[in-house]
């Protein structure tokens, strides 16, 4: 376990109003009191100092064990930025170019096909004119999908192949990615944006290029150097009591326990760079601080500042936002004014988002209603952790943004 997580400054010293920050707690406490959330933790940092840290409710409703500052959470898709950083660390070493076809490293993707029409039982496909390239994986423009989206025939084909909310039983990451390559793409790579298993494929690319399993690369190259001692693909016996239980939204709007068995306490067969990590507020705060500081924290540099700046600019063609370039998918927030970089959603037009924020702020969230963002213009990072599926059940992320930005008073 890392050092104690605590507030490190008077909020006024970093341009935040303490009374206004308390509005975060007073707003989200009723989510627990009326049963919408089991519990939550919020961390607001500015100029490298933790100005607000609050926890409320239970990490386990049955036992009444409270959410504490060292509670462990399934961060699901907040794993994606970590995998994207891993890939770009290898890019900085000259291991590949962003325009390289991924089939150079993952031969199963050499002859991809694109879905044209027909049913899942009799799909009609054609050869892809464009190969999947590394940047397509990083930007979710590869044509891959998620089986749980229930939007297209390709989603249905994923589910039939065992890709619903996990990978096919019995396959490791290499086997799962090869199986994925057998399925058709939703569109030509680079032509649209669609949230997908691309980051799982990217994780396999990291393995092949580095010659290390993904968990070892993460531990040796990212977590250990940054002091992220709580982040891994499973929880060890010594830390089991810190693990938050997972809940889903019942028909009555109240959080209901989702029995996950012992999945959090044993190494997964397939290491999911797209959604497999467990972490703590302190650890993810350190990851955000590394990004805010241009790839460096406490003398440890993972990326160059220009690489971080490049990753966190909009890479959608013509400066388009996700509303224009994306496909409608499971999401909590509007895509208007939001672009996508290499691993992050990026605010392209703050006015168009209809939410208090800054141009250039970047972010992502997880399936269990977790969220984070980094705002370079305001030198601000925010982490919100809870455990409720799905993430669009309540307007958590939009409300949190309102409540954080209204507290900035300098």
TrEMBL record:
Keywords linked to the UniProt accession: Hydrolase
Superkingdom, taxonomy of origin: Bacteria
Keyword Hydrolase appears in the UniProt entry: yes
Example of a GO MF term: hydrolase activity
Residues in Beta-lactamase-related domain copies: 24-400
This protein's record includes keyword Hydrolase: yes
Record-linked InterPro entries: Beta-lactam-related (IPR001466), Beta-lactam/transpept-like (IPR012338), Diverse_Enzym_Activities (IPR050789)
Name used for this protein in its record: Serine hydrolase
């Amino acid at each position: 376990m890392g050092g104690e997580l605590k507030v490190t400054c008077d909020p006024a010293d970093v341009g935040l109003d303490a009374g206004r920050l308390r509005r975060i707690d007073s707003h989200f406490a009723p989510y627990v009191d009326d049963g919408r959330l089991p519990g939550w933790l919020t961390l607001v940092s500015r100029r490298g100092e933790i100005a607000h840290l609050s926890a409320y409710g239970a990490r386990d409703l049955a036992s009444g064990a409270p959410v504490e500052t060292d509670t462990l959470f399934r961060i699901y898709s907040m794993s994606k930025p970590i995998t994207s950083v891993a890939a770009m660390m290898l890019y900085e070493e000259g291991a590949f170019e962003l325009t390289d076809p991924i089939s150079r490293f993952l031969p199963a993707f050499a002859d991809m096909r694109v879905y044209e029409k027909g049913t899942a039982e009799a799909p009609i496909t054609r050869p892809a004119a464009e190969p999947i390239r590394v940047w397509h994986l990083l930007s979710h423009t590869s044509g891959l999908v998620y089986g749980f989206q229930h939007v297209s025939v390709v989603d249905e084909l994923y589910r039939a192949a065992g890709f619903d909310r996990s990978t096919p039983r019995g396959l490791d990451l290499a086997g799962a990615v090869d199986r994925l390559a057998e399925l058709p793409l939703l569109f030509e790579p680079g032509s649209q944006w669609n949230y997908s298993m691309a980051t799982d494929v990217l994780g396999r690319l990291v393995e092949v290029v580095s010659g290390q399993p993904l968990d070892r690369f993460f531990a040796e190259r990212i977590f250990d150097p940054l002091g992220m001692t709580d982040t891994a693909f499973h929880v060890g016996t010594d830390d089991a009591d810190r693990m938050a239980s997972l809940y889903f939204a019942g028909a009555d709007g109240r959080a209901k326990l989702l029995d996950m068995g012992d999945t959090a306490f044993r190494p997964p067969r397939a290491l999911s760079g797209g959604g497999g990590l467990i972490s703590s507020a302190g650890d993810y705060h350190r990851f955000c601080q590394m990004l805010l500081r241009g790839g460096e924290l406490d003398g440890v540099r993972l990326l160059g500042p220009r690489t971080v700046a490049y990753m966190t600019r909009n890479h959608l063609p013509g400066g388009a936002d996700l509303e224009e370039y994306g496909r409608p998918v499971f999401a909590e927030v509007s895509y208007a004014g939001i672009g996508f970089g290499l691993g992050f959603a990026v605010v392209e037009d703050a006015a168009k988002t209809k939410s208090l924020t800054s141009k250039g702020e970047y972010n992502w969230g997880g399936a269990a209603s977790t969220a984070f963002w980094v705002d370079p213009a305001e030198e601000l990072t925010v982490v919100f952790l809870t455990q409720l599926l799905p993430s669009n059940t309540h307007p958590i992320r939009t409300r949190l943004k309102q409540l954080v930005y209204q507290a900035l008073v300098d």
